[in-house]
Amino acid sequence: MQTNDLINALRADAAKQAMPLGYSWWIAIVAATIIAAGAFFILIGPRPDFTVAAHTPRFLFKFIVTLALVVVAFALLRVLSRPGSDVRHVAYWLVLMPILLGTAVAAELFAVPSDQLVTVWWGSNVYVCLTFIPLIGLGALAVFLAALRHGAPTRPRLAGAVAGLLAGGIAATFYAAHCTDDSPLFVATWYSIAIAGLVALGAICGRRVARW
């Protein structure tokens, strides 16, 4: 390659603008949601009485919690993808989910007879929940880990964990449409454990994939 050709090539590379990081995250969340939706409808689909259940507060509450988790985790992950960013002002919002669940669980303890608490806590779909939330969220997690490579996270393990949290929130939102166990006790326990599996996987993969 001649000198002039090299100069022209370098100039062309410099003229190329990388996709803005904020824009790439919006593409990632849309892609992850589509992938999770595809997995949900292929694997299990909504519960048969979805339209009836959609008019009950306990069923709708599941979506309030999971969607709140998605919003906060998405904001936190975007901050973590930028080096030197202060995450505290976003991370504080993570306490919203325990507050919501804790309030609902307290109400449930008063509303449900004591001899039925174990039944509603265990529910009828524990193993389905623990299996399909991670399965639905795996593709979304892969998308978010790939998006992290477009950024420059200084704490890749933490960023990977939050990517798993976000993927888990999306997966839990879809799974909630299938789940017939609407008790906050069930949601607080088993949804949390299922999402934690994706958080752990994200932390492990983030350490390898997202470092730079």
UniProtKB/TrEMBL annotation:
InterPro entries: NrsF. Coiled coil: none annotated. It comes from Rhizobium giardinii. Signal peptide: none annotated. This is DUF1109 family protein. Pfam families: NrsF. It comes from the Bacteria. The lineage of its organism: Bacteria, Pseudomonadati, Pseudomonadota, Alphaproteobacteria, Hyphomicrobiales. Keywords: Membrane, Transmembrane, Transmembrane helix. The chain crosses the membrane at residues 21-44, 59-80, 92-112, 124-146, 158-177, 189-210.
